[in-house]
């Protein structure tokens, strides 16, 4: 059995930066707080917790005057404010791309643009980004079903300029589909008052390229192994792509989950991992598969 590892398997730059800097900090202190899980991966979190990382869901749980880490997903505007009030020392490891999106949303909204943000309303990155616009002047939407109500919200706001952007991990294909439907509907509805539209494809290419590589690899092999947290949205997406393009696919967090898998009829196995999956887990799986193929 041939084992092929995708070139882009594992940590993206944003997550790698946050994890490596946190590991550095923990070398010379007993504990440090982190708002939310640093990476959607149980193994990574367990190792960091053993070294002193304390994960909290709410900044109010962090004692005043202590140190706190903000993860790659970014945080809301009010969290920055609360950190100031509590006199916290903040290590802000929000991904540079997420910070740029916050700045763009804030600037465009200040300049009179209504914001359409494509993404998942419950995702921490979206919750953070949303907070940088006036709540009456932004709508989060993720599929065609939500386009009409988003346009209604835009009309109600009386703004005649629209800024369209997306969660950094949003699908590029879906982005283009939604934009063309919105443009079409606005053109039809508009009559006299034309709405000026500015589009920012704020999607991180790391995500797109990894998805494309997964699709190509899945077509080439007869079994795909996707490694990553079961709660990691980008890993779930890789698994969905694999199922669509390959006869067999499995989503695992650790190599132990492969023990009962029958590889007897498999000649080529492809391995891919999500953006929060550490090298250690990937290497363990590769080693295990190589052993099974002997
Ligand atoms: S996927 Fe891209 S935008 Fe998101 S944290 Fe990673 S590098 Fe940053």
Mind explaining what this structure looks like?
Helix 2 links the parallel strand 2 (32-35) and strand 3. The mean pLDDT is 94. A four-stranded parallel sheet has the order 1-12-10-11, sandwiched between helices. Strands 3-2-4-5 form a four-stranded parallel sheet. A four-stranded parallel sheet has the order 7-6-8-9, with helices on both faces. The protein has ten helices and twelve strands. It has 294 residues and is α/β, with parallel strands linked by helices. The chain folds into three domains: 2-9 and 206-292, 3-Layer(aba) Sandwich (Cobalt-precorrin-4 Transmethylase, domain 1); 13-95, 3-Layer(aba) Sandwich (Rossmann fold); 97-199, 4-hydroxy-3-methylbut-2-enyl diphosphate reductase, catalytic domain (Cobalt-precorrin-4 Transmethylase, domain 1). It has helices at residues 13-27, 42-50, 77-85, 96-110, 124-130, 147-157, 172-190, 205-220, 233-245, 279-292; strands spanning 2-5, 32-35, 53-56, 67-70, 89-92, 114-118, 138-141, 161-166, 196-199, 223-227, 249-252, 268-273. The chain binds iron/sulfur cluster. Iron/sulfur cluster is lined by residues 12-15, 72, 95, 97-98, 168-169, 204, 206-207, 275.
């Amino acid at each position: 059995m041939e084992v092929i590892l995708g070139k882009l398997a594992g940590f993206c730059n944003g997550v790698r930066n946050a994890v490596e800097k946190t590991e550095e900090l923990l070398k010379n202190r007993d504990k440090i707080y982190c708002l939310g899980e640093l990476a959607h991966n149980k193994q990574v979190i367990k190792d960091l917790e053993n070294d002193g990382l304390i994960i909290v869901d709410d900044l109010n749980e962090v004692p005043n005057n202590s140190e706190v880490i903000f993860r790659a997903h970014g945080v809301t505007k009010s969290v920055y404010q609360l950190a100031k009030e509590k006199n916290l020392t903040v290590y802000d490891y929000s991904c540079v791309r997420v910070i740029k999106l916050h700045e763009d949303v804030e600037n465009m909204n200040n300049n009179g643009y209504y914001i359409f943000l494509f993404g998942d309303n419950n995702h921490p990155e979206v919750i953070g980004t949303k907070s940088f616009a006036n709540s009456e002047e932004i709508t989060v939407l993720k599929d065609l079903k939500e386009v009409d109500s988003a346009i209604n919200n835009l009309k109600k706001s009386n703004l005649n300029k629209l800024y369209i952007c997306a969660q950094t991990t949003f699908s590029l294909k879906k982005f283009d589909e939604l934009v063309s439907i919105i443009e079409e509907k606005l053109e039809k509805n508009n009559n006299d008052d034309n709405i000026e539209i500015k589009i920012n494809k704020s999607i991180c290419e790391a995500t797109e390229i990894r998805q494309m590589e997964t699709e190509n690899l899945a077509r080439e092999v007869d079994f795909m192994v996707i490694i990553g947290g079961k709660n990691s949205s980008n890993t779930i997406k890789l698994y969905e792509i694999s199922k669509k393009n390959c006869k067999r696919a499995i989503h695992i967090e650790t190599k132990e989950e492969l023990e009962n898998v029958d590889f007897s009829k498999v000649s080529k196995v492809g391995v891919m991992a999500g953006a929060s999956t550490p090298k250690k887990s990937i290497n363990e799986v590769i080693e295990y598969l190589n052993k099974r193929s002997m």
